[in-house]
Amino acid sequence: MLNAQNIPYIKKGPWEKEEDEKIFKWVKINGPQKWQQCSDTIPGRNSKQCRERWFNGLKPDLKKEIGLQKKIKLYFKDIQIMDQHGVLYQNNQKEELKMQQKIDFIAHLENQ
């Protein structure tokens, strides 16, 4: 039976570099699974914390996805510039060229 003396301590707050390294090592060896066993190697962290840390902060392709999403939002923001009367801003040829370059750049990022 659990009581206050044998309840394991659950660490909260920022992750330390050593903890992140242990998760990277775990995923490299075992893949992104068996989080309970992974948490056994990191004192004070539970399986849910380890899983969420990987999928929401450490997963290598996550940063690439977030960067691409930001670039796409900026692109659409540039397209939909409104003037004072709410009429869609008509881009001149120079701005259309810039937009085409952005489209090409986004397509290049998606294909990497």
TrEMBL record:
<protein>
    <submittedName>
        <fullName>Myb-like DNA-binding domain protein</fullName>
    </submittedName>
</protein>
<keyword id="KW-0804">Transcription</keyword>
<keyword id="KW-0238">DNA-binding</keyword>
<keyword id="KW-0805">Transcription regulation</keyword>
<dbReference type="GO" id="GO:0001006">
    <property type="term" value="F:RNA polymerase III type 3 promoter sequence-specific DNA binding"/>
</dbReference>
<keyword id="KW-0677">Repeat</keyword>
<dbReference type="InterPro" id="IPR017930">
    <property type="entry name" value="Myb_dom"/>
</dbReference>
<dbReference type="InterPro" id="IPR009057">
    <property type="entry name" value="Homeodomain-like_sf"/>
</dbReference>
<feature type="domain" description="Myb-like">
    <location>
        <begin position="7"/>
        <end position="58"/>
    </location>
</feature>
<dbReference type="GO" id="GO:0019185">
    <property type="term" value="C:snRNA-activating protein complex"/>
</dbReference>
<dbReference type="Pfam" id="PF00249">
    <property type="entry name" value="Myb_DNA-binding"/>
</dbReference>
<dbReference type="InterPro" id="IPR051575">
    <property type="entry name" value="Myb-like_DNA-bd"/>
</dbReference>
<dbReference type="GO" id="GO:0042795">
    <property type="term" value="P:snRNA transcription by RNA polymerase II"/>
</dbReference>
<dbReference type="GO" id="GO:0042796">
    <property type="term" value="P:snRNA transcription by RNA polymerase III"/>
</dbReference>
<feature type="domain" description="HTH myb-type">
    <location>
        <begin position="7"/>
        <end position="62"/>
    </location>
</feature>
<dbReference type="InterPro" id="IPR001005">
    <property type="entry name" value="SANT/Myb"/>
</dbReference>
<keyword id="KW-0539">Nucleus</keyword>
<dbReference type="GO" id="GO:0000978">
    <property type="term" value="F:RNA polymerase II cis-regulatory region sequence-specific DNA binding"/>
</dbReference>
